[in-house]
Amino acid sequence: SYWVSCRKAAKNYKEELQKRFCANYSSDVSNARSIISNELFVNNTIDSSSPILQVQNVSFDREVEGFRHHTSRYEVMQEEGAALVFRRGQPFSFVLHFNRAFNPEEDYFYLQAEFGHTPLIPKGTKYKLPLSEKSDNDDDWEFSSVNQSNDENEFKVQVKTPSNCQVGLWKFALFTYKRNSPGEAKYTFLQDFYILFNPWNESDQVFLEDEEKRQEYVLND
């Protein structure tokens, strides 16, 4: 039947995720912790004296995002420095901590998202997302700013993946550059980002209207 097929597919997908999480991240996280203490690793590719804006740290609120995305039960979401698990078609946010105050007249940055071994823009497995206004189209990527703090060195942003986004492992990097200055800086996120199906999103093809079914087939499987 339809539901039997759905449950079988979900079970197989869950087992694949568990294999990846359990086999790879216990050693990777411990190694990463011996190198850094921040939530995310910032890979500066320019000299610290450069006028280009540089990220010193990036922080997520795992508890809040796990609750919103119904992924808090994944062990990795409870591990600082481990992978992050989100559902497609739904926004997640994080704070960029810069080395100086962000100047919107001179400083610019964009987010790069990559999927698979050979990500390509024409294939829809690589995206370069400039900071923009929020989109009402569920099939669009979105990279936008949210309510800002009083700290001029902090900038909070939000990412929303499309409701038809490829499910699986994504890699993210942030590029910054300055007006009238050559070059740009690349900041690579250490964590992997796992994007899952979203039965809570009406635009997702696996949407389930009945909350009891979501609890039974998704959260309790």
From TrEMBL:
The record's listing under InterPro entries reads: Ig-like_fold (IPR013783), Ig_E-set (IPR014756), Transglutaminase (IPR050779), Transglutaminase_N (IPR001102)
One MF term from GO for this chain?
Answer: protein-glutamine gamma-glutamyltransferase activity
Pfam families the UniProt entry points to: Transglut_N
> Residue limits of the Transglutaminase N-terminal domain?
57-174
| Coiled-coil region list | none
Q: Highest taxon of the source?
A: Eukaryota
Q: Which family does it belong to?
A: Belongs to the transglutaminase superfamily. Transglutaminase family.
Q: What is this protein called?
A: Transglutaminase N-terminal domain-containing protein
The species this protein was found in:
Homalodisca liturata
